[in-house]
TrEMBL record:
This is Transcription termination/antitermination protein NusA. Participates in both transcription termination and antitermination. One of its GO terms (cellular component) is cytosol. The gene is nusA. PANTHER family: TRANSCRIPTION TERMINATION FACTOR NUSA, TRANSCRIPTION TERMINATION_ANTITERMINATION PROTEIN NUSA. Its main location: cytoplasm. Pfam families: KH_NusA_1st (PF13184), KH_NusA_2nd (PF26594), NusA_N (PF08529). Belongs to the NusA family. It is found in: Cytoplasm. Monomer. Binds directly to the core enzyme of the DNA-dependent RNA polymerase and to nascent RNA.
Length: 417
């Protein structure tokens, strides 16, 4: 047991960086609990361990008495004087009570308890080493799954990526080597001190840009804001105080090399790089490009904005399941209300109405028929002269008789000089 115990101390001290004094304390407490079963409830029982020699001794502090009534707490005066010559009645005498089977007790009963205590000490070291690394990006290898959490080997320590910090579009397989964002280092986690990792955190993207884009690292270019829906899309707004520096170009890199490296690390998540503007309205326009914003009204407190886009751009501005609108809103820091440009629709309706009335006057048809032709794209007389009767019938809902009448009127129409 002596050589085994010394080897255990040496291993944990050199390989795990755990202080030997902490290990001695942990083993002493474990053996104390285990030894009470063998020794009994001796008064002030304690365990002394020599970490260098690897020896273990049990001691009790008994009272010197004339007549022993409680052997767990008392010692005959005569026996006490054999240990301490000057012993008097009532003196406390240290008596070695190490059982013959202490080696077996230590090996069988206390070892597991000691290892548990040592794991706690190891986690305390983890906290001390990682407490200042919150916000860093670390490399790790996926080791196993603990329910829905992913346990990651960081080399000397292990980190945990909770299910809410995972990216829904990513697959995680033991043995995969990936980069992780250190979201927090918690002293009082569910299993003691623990490193909380993330790949879904918005600052993971920020740190990747800092590593990949030297201009961000030296603050020539700054990230003004980021909005992310992990696994799907990220919008990053950048700017530079140096007018000679193109912040978007710096982030994209030569032939897109820089942003491609970031996208690759994010497993092909779409990344939009946007030029930041100090003017809120201009910033919104930049964030929605290439969609053209027709009009925008920003609230006085800059917390909300109402904007209009064309009918064709409305669905693009909102995005699939509202994603583009949500991300843009987070990026610019305003609640956005995106609407179709009703003015453009009104102008278009007016043009159709004018065309219908012109057809009514020119051909002598009723207004309802003229509206059907105009709405079907046949509101121009010149266009009508070039189409077949079948095309007219289709626009008129398959009414061949009415189509024939219109076709005859068109053929007979003579423009006024």
């Amino acid at each position: 047991m002596i050589s085994e115990l010394k080897a255990l101390f040496d291993y944990y001290e050199k390989e795990k960086g755990i202080d030997r004094a902490k290990m001695v304390e942990a083993l002493s407490q474990a053996l104390l609990a285990a030894s009470k079963k063998s020794i009994g409830p001796a008064r002030e029982l304690r365990i002394d361990i020599d970490p260098e020699k690897g020896t273990i001794k049990a001691w009790a502090k008994l009272l010197a008495v004339e007549t022993v009534t409680n052997p767990w707490e008392e010692l005959p005066l005569a026996k006490a004087r054999m240990i301490k010559k000057e012993a008097m009645l009532g003196d406390e005498i240290d008596l070695e009570v190490t059982p013959k089977n202490m080696g077996r007790i230590a090996a069988q009963t206390a070892k597991q308890t000691m290892l548990q205590r040592l794991r706690m000490a190891e986690k305390e070291n983890l906290y001390d080493e990682f407490k200042d690394r919150t916000g860093d990006v670390v490399n790790g290898t996926i080791r196993r799954f603990d329910k829905s959490d992913v346990v990651v080997d960081l080399g000397k320590f292990e980190g945990t990526m909770p299910s809410k910090e995972r990216v829904s579009t990513e697959d995680y397989t033991p043995g995969d080597r990936m980069r992780f964002y250190v979201k927090a280092v918690e002293r009082e986690g569910a299993r003691g001190p623990e490193i909380v990792l993330s790949r879904a955190h918005v600052n993971f993207v920020r740190r990747l840009f800092e590593f990949e884009v030297s201009e961000i690292g030296d603050r020539t270019v700054e990230i003004a804001s980021i909005a992310r829906e992990a696994g799907y899309r990220t919008k990053v707004a950048v700017h530079s105080a140096d007018e000679k520096v193109d912040p978007v170009g710096a982030c994209v890199g030569l032939r897109g090399a820089r942003v491609k490296n970031i996208v690759r690390e994010l497993n092909n998540e779409k990344v939009d790089i946007i030029r930041w503007k100090s003017d809120p309205a201009e910033f919104v326009r930049e964030a929605l490009k290439p969609i053209k914003v027709l009009s925008i009204q920003v609230a006085p407190d800059h917390k909300a904005a109402r904007l209009t886009v064309s009918e064709e751009d409305l669905s693009k501005a909102i995005g699939r399941r509202g994603q583009n609108a949500r991300l843009t809103s987070r990026l610019v820091g305003m609640e956005l209300s995106i609407e179709r440009d009703e003015h453009a629709a009104e102008v278009f309706e007016g043009q159709l109405d004018t065309a219908a009335h012109e057809l009514e006057r020119a051909l002598g048809i009723n207004l309802d028929t003229a509206r059907k032709l105009a709405n079907g794209g046949l509101g121009d007389l010149q266009e009508l002269r070039r189409v077949d009767m079948e095309d007219i019938s289709e626009v008129l809902g398959g009414d061949d008789q009415l189509a024939q009448q219109v076709y005859t009127l068109i053929a007979a129409y003579t423009p006024k000089a």
